[in-house]
Amino acid sequence: MKQVSKATLQRYPVYLKALRKLKSLGVKRVMSKELAEYVDIQPTTIRRDFSLIGHLGKQGFGYDVDELIEIFSSSLGINFDEKIILVGAGNLGKALLKYNNWDNVIGEIVCAFDKYPDKVGELSVPLYDIKDLKEKMPKDARIAIVCVSSDVQKTVDLLAANGIVSIVDLTHEHFVVPKGVHVRCVDIVSTIIELVFETNKLNY
Amino acid sequence: MKQVSKATLQRYPVYLKALRKLKSLGVKRVMSKELAEYVDIQPTTIRRDFSLIGHLGKQGFGYDVDELIEIFSSSLGINFDEKIILVGAGNLGKALLKYNNWDNVIGEIVCAFDKYPDKVGELSVPLYDIKDLKEKMPKDARIAIVCVSSDVQKTVDLLAANGIVSIVDLTHEHFVVPKGVHVRCVDIVSTIIELVFETNKLNY
DNA sequence: TCAGCTTTGTGAAGATATTGACAATATCTA
DNA sequence: TAGATATTGTCAATATCTTCACAAAGCTGA
Q1: DSSP code of A3?
Q2: Are residues B183 and B122 in the same domain?
């Protein structure tokens, strides 16, 4: 596998999502040009992105959808048993949990933690006090979804100290993480602002 | 205002968020170097991004936080009365609504639509049948948050036909939009996949 | 007021990312 | 089997983005 650039890395999930969708529609074979229209990325860019992983396609034929999904999943290290923990079981946390039907896309949320576990109602996964994270957290969990509304930095520090290396950030707080820990911010407000900027830009 | 590149556009919400945070902490003045550490973007990049909007800073001094927020908001067209509509009032939609305390960051959700409004409980905003979107939707609404789980394409078409130009997509479906309509996908699953790819990449 | 210090704003260089063009190689059909 | 056709994979060219380096300009304190 060659050096994968940042830009390419961001496109892989898009491809994977599209390919899974195509598969569910019964599509067996896809050409870069078709996929390009589907995901709105240039065919050349797609071919180049794919070629970084290996020779996935066949000239004159295209790509085998099943095979592509298989290779993408395995060579990029998707683990269908990935154990994800949820930290903060407020409204948003609960909604995510209810919605935890990720149909074998990438593991599932195995347990949740909250500062006031007594105040949280019945959940579909075990719920623990955040104080007991160290003991209760599965040892092989690497990913945490953080939806707490206070003590964000403290929470993140605790997670990092206990082996979490990937954080999905749904808070609105700014925080810092040790080197080696990856963060992705999922923020609807920022998303809306970005949309507004983009929309208004057209008027210049 | 000069030509703003895509990359810069994506950073503006990050700056704005950080600046608002700094303001709330009582910070009056900030230098590109300070801000750089805070948001993890090079000072030069920040200065260049800012300079596209105008001469916002003062040499030897830095930037005035309040002023910067003001200029950002106004010259990028943030409308604090922006009317946002929510389409699909399932678990996720409801959680977003409860969470609709965007402290004057960018308007608010003014009403919601669902295919089965009878099945949805009490909400904090008026709820209408999606069939009545045309009549019930505020005429000046431009942004829609889409959380429906079926008929996604149909829903999006309806929105586009009724003047929505910006869509925040929380579905897992692929859909197409007419030219001029902007979409931003907020997808936790894709975010997690991206994180996994990035994390694993380190092992090569 | 003036010298010294600081920080911005920006031209130019360097780094990254995208795209055009086409050889290589597979499929398809007769 | 062979020729026609289609599509990949990749080199080179182009475009976009980031960073360096420094002049210009404002602040600060004597």
Answers
A1: P
A2: yes
Same domain as B137, residue B90 = yes
Distance of CA B184 to CAs A194, B64, B122, B180, Å?
A: 9, 31, 28, 13
What is the domain extent for residue A68?
A: 6-75
CB pair distance less than 8 Å for B193 and A98: no
Q: Across the interface, which of B9, B84, B187 has its CB nearest the CB of A201?
A: B9
Query: Of B75, B93, B126, at which residue does a domain stop?
Result: B75
Chain B environment of A78 (Cβ under 8 Å)? 193, 196
Residues of chain A positioned with their CB less than 8 A from the CB of B30 = none
Asked whether residue A187 carries a pLDDT value surpassing 70, the answer given is yes
Q: How far is the CA of B60 from the C1' of D29 (A)?
A: 15
Is A163 a domain residue? yes
Q: How many domains does chain B have?
A: 2
A161: CB partners within 8 A, 6+ apart: none
List of residues 6+ apart from B37 with CB closer than 8 A = none
Same domain, B91 and B143: yes
CB within 8 Å: A191 and B195: no
**Among A49, A75, A101, where does a domain finish?**
A75
User: Is pLDDT of A179 > 60?
Assistant: yes
B114-126: per-residue pLDDT in tens? 999 998 888 999 9
pLDDT in tens, B43-86: 999 999 999 999 999 999 999 999 999 998 888 888 888 899 99
pTM score, two decimals?
0.88
Interface of A with B in 40-59 (CB under 8 A): none
